Queue: 3 jobs
Job 1
Amino acid sequence: MGSSSLSSFTDSYCVIGDLSWTLPGMHDPHSDCGKMLESGAENRCNRLICSECFSRVLKKQAYRIYKRITKSTLDNSDFRHIIFSPPQDWAIERIKTECGFKYFRRRATEIIKQAGIESAVLFFHPWRLTERLKSLFEEYFEAESEDKNIWKDLVIERTIEFSEISIRISPHIHILGTGFLKRADIFEERTSWVYRNLGDLKYSLKNRIRYNLNHVGLALDGGGGSIFNSYTYIGDLKRRGAEYEEE
Ligand SMILES: [Zn+2]
């Protein structure tokens, strides 16, 4: 199969195999989203894909993750922001079906543990920004643009269109986590995965959570929801997590 038939974009999702992948806030709201209830509160569907409700859902989910990490017994100053990239052909095959993606996530969890990560929150990103978009941005602002600002414009502000001009399929996983990382070259030789350590995050845990969550990959379930969780945990954050989220 040629790469041209790999995927097809609409303005709000991208079909890859059997699955339709999208980003937060790209989907139509329900007719009553944002409407005032008798109680005076606004009606919210609590779906991350809803264009009317997603920013609240993002905040809520980001806060839950933040709370889980900061209330855990783990030392927050040990946390690192790391990107794990799988062999691309293998990964793209896996994200075409529900079953395949479940396997991808299980495998990713094993691999990330093999790298030495003991506890972490994981975010799946199906896309990277295209070089073309990045260079357009740099031209326009006459300065080196940060990816995080571009994603914000694409997802939150919607000033950049969701299309193959802006993004390209390139599955990878961001983690915020802790452990003793194995050497990158040895890890790559053994697993064929690559990691890039973006460093510690003691002054910006909240921002890193929001950044990773705001362009997380979501697969549509056909009924107006998404099939998979927008993030997952490993290690102590998974085992004892629910305790940390209690008030
Ligand atoms: Zn909604």
Note: The chain is about 35% helix and 20% strand.
Job 2
Amino acid sequence: MKFGFLKHSLVDYPGEVCAVVFIPGCNFHCSYCHNQNLEADVEHNGWTSEQILSYLRDARRLLTGVCISGGEPTLQEDLLSQLIEHFKALNLKIKLDTNGSRSEVLKSVAPEVDYVAMDLKTSPKRYLKLAHPNEASSLLTNLNASVELLLQRPPETYEFRTTLSPFWADENALHDIGRMLKEESRWYLQRCRGEAEPRNAFERLKEEHRLQRAVDIAKGYSKYVDLRR
Ligand code: SF4
């Protein structure tokens, strides 16, 4: 199997200099996703696990962590566990990015990872429209279980992330998401790229107002809100 791979990043793991491994394949189809073509990309330009481990062994002194991202990494439990084991053996801190749809897998790997970032994309009642139809029967149960699991962790070891899509993360959705969190949960809001880029000064101003409004709503639920541009 081949993976997407970024040799170093200062923005994918708070406080760490990390490499990023992208595992292809996802059970969601978010309209703003940048990784929709990941499967096709890695087929041609991907890295094997041996190449990644060899690079990490050489770069160990420059890096402090690895971020395992996707796609959705928890769809491939065995592969994910193996990668975690290899990265731990290299003494690198491990961050896992997840959409929270496989709570059992998350539960089994969570004790082995140092930091988890889970997306909360929209109101629970609207989630089914984002996921593959096969997910329908268990999706909401799994999402809630994943949120509960993270809320049991020390707050500095997890975060929730919401991409501020004007459609999926409107004000009602932000209130619904906020009600799922604890006050001490870190909640990062991310600008949505690709869905509706402002085309002129007036639209940019409107967009700034919308982002600020989202931050203000989020601050009503969490003490640790930040906007990632
Ligand atoms: S869950 Fe993440 S990887 Fe999957 S479609 Fe949505 S944004 Fe893309």
Note: The mean pLDDT is 94.
Job 3
Amino acid sequence: MKEEDQEPTGGKSSPAGAGNSPVVPKQLTLESRIRFRCHPGIDCFTRCCSDIDIMLTPYDVLRMKHRLGISSDEFLERYTRSRIEEKTGWPQLLIKMEESSGRPCPFVTPDGCTIYTDRPAMCRYYPVGQGIHRKQVDDQVVNEEFYMLIREEHCHGFNEDRQWTIAEWRENQEAEYYDRMAGEWKDLFVRSITRDEEKDGRRQTMFFLASYNLDQFRRFVLESRFLETFQIDEEETAAVREDDVELMKLAFRYLRYLFGVEKTLSLKDGVLPEEKPGGESA
Ligand code: SF4
Ligand code: SF4
């Protein structure tokens, strides 16, 4: 068994360069115990919701835009900013903090998070960060998760009495469900670190569209040659017209196919690989 890579993939934290890392340098497992409680009566309530980098997964975007009742375009324009992630070369989406004093999150009020039940995965995991070891086991590369504590001075939740195992904390925060919804997409991110490939502007644009702008991706599926090119049965076509989760799953399959990670789609008889929408050979 050979360890290949180790990549932190989750955890709300202050922007890079803002000071010493708050990550406690000790790997935790699902059985590790932490002492922590966050509640509206605590003196630091909402202090963690300003001037921070909150990365969004496609499923976060889906939940938040539904909660707000707006289109992907409007959500992206009003509430997010993007940057190219250094290690992978893929565009990464973050909540755009307000310009006002202290740079608060646009969803925070003195009473707490206004989208609490639909808050992003990173806000759920906190103060537990998450990472992935990629390991070679026999002839297969497998992902193995590990956890770490993010301990910031302003957070007084560590002084409270409540104890949890990491597994209990994750269950309480619906972290497993969120991980499942973004699993294939995160895997694409992590794999990219070990693959030496160029991410040109066209690839980055398609990655952004299929990852974060589901409304536009739906138009791409229904209005381009997508359905003439790939074998997508009628039931799935009907589902992606109506259901954003089904559409998101198709988007992940498309990205994995397009970037040669896995043969998750099949071309229709007579279609040549170079004819497919998105334009690259898998
Ligand atoms: S989304 Fe909600 S929980 Fe997350 S930083 Fe913003 S206000 Fe805080
Ligand atoms: S306890 Fe920590 S997570 Fe909870 S409000 Fe305070 S700073 Fe935020």
Note: The chain has two domains: 2-176, 213-275.
